[in-house]
Amino acid sequence: MKKILIYSHDTFGLGNIRRMLEVARHLVESSPEVSVLVITGSPMLHAFRIPPGIDYVKLPCLQRNVQGRYAARSLSLSLHDTVRLRANLIRSAIADFEPDLVLVDKKPFGVEDELAGALRAIQEHQRRPHMVLLLRDILDSPETTARVWRKNGYFEAITAYYDQVLVVGCPDVFDLRHEYEFPPFAAAKVRYCGYIAREPGCRTRSEMRQQLGVTASQRLVLVTPGGGEDGYTLVDAALRGLAGLPEEERPRMHIVCGPEMAAHQRTAVQAAAQALPGVSLQDFSDDMMSLQAAADVVLAMGGYNTVCELLSCGRRGVLVPRVKPGLEQCIRAERMAGMGLLAMVHPDRLTPATLMRAVRAELVALEMGEQRPRLKRIAGLEQATQAIFELLGLAEPGDEDEGRPAAAPVRAERTPRSLAA
């Protein structure tokens, strides 16, 4: 058996753990010779279906506010003590599990550098595991990301500790090697895999619509603010916009509030929904693909997973991206809208009226049979699995990966000094 340990970055929302669980699922389903241990502090891990071959170590939760500051989420510990506890658990798990490969999500040194000790210890192992960093398509604005990566020594960390950097995106949308000013020695390790296509949901479109009570003649608008921690503004604008339409023009609406929406905000949403006929809601769904397949238009915030779901099922989407604590969602929405893949309403221009105009424009386009262009590079799971299996000796080296440009490879510069000292 080949043992893979996945470190999932977690502090805000559900995006990271959902993405890393998809990667873990695909790994174990692609080979009976693989088992996966996930390390995460996500408070929602237990709500997802965990396939056979995958287990997890739950870390004490951290949280990040909209200003980007971290704190302990549940324990009466300081941030320093919580990070130290998490770091010790991570290091022990790696030592006892003895993985053949460690897949790290997003940050080379982990949250608050909690992986630094484990990385140094790994360097001393006689049987050193392969090290892979997994990055989504966009991290934050180019200015912020390049500054943070240089300041924190992330580029040098890639050289000192990592065998490969896998990007689940495509350079046609956002080439982080260029945008984030990767030096040649770090850029040489980057391999583009494409966006992560999502598998169809558990229910068909007709089954899901029947379960929601949507008739064949009704248009269904799905509202999904991801984890919901900062999604109330979108949901509130959608409900107010719907209330402002003539009753005969209102589409059917279903809202998934998200499990991390504040209790008082959820209560306000429930009260507003009850006052409007044709509105239903739920707190959480582990089968968003079925809900998206049932919808005609999706209102969402622009997180990576939601965009991948929209690209996979081909639904018309209107994104109202988050702009705090980072610009990742806004950049993604702007790039996708610029390519005609999805529509976008900037949060600075969000009102109930502007949101409903965008929804009605999508419904009219749907009635007219207008087709949006489709992004072809959505084989992220397959490409990432191929790359990981190549390192483990479970697969022959594949063809040129779909995101790598045809130009000559970047020449590696002299390796910087090790960060282990």
Q: What is this structure's SSE topology?
A:
Blueprint: E1 2-7, H1 15-30, E2 34-40, E3 54-58, E4 62-64, E5 70-72, H2 79-97, E6 101-105, H3 116-124, E7 130-136, H4 142-152, H5 154-161, E8 164-168, H6 176-179, H7 184-187, E9 190-192, H8 205-212, E10 220-224, H9 232-243, E11 252-256, H10 263-274, E12 279-282, H11 288-294, E13 297-300, H12 304-313, E14 316-319, H13 328-338, E15 343-344, H14 352-367, H15 380-392
Parallel strand pairs: 1-2, 1-6, 2-3, 6-7, 7-8, 8-9, 10-11, 10-13, 11-12, 13-14, 14-15
Antiparallel strand pairs: 4-5
Helix pairs in contact: 1-15, 2-3, 8-11, 9-10, 9-14
Any key phrases for this structure?
six-stranded parallel beta sheet; 15 helices; disordered C terminus; 421 residues; alpha/beta; seven-stranded parallel beta sheet
Detailed description of the structure:
The protein is of the alpha/beta class and 421 residues long. It has 15 helices and 15 strands. A seven-stranded parallel beta sheet has the order 3-2-1-6-7-8-9, sandwiched between helices. Helix 13 links the parallel strand 14 and strand 15. The protein is globular. The C terminus is likely disordered.
Outline of this structure?
By secondary structure, the protein is an alpha/beta fold. It has helices at residues 15-30, 79-97, 116-124, 142-152, 154-161, 176-179, 184-187, 205-212, 232-243, 263-274, 288-294, 304-313, 328-338, 352-367, 380-392, and strands spanning 2-7, 34-40, 54-58, 62-64, 70-72, 101-105, 130-136, 164-168, 190-192, 220-224, 252-256, 279-282, 297-300, 316-319, 343-344. Residues 400-421 have low confidence and may be disordered.
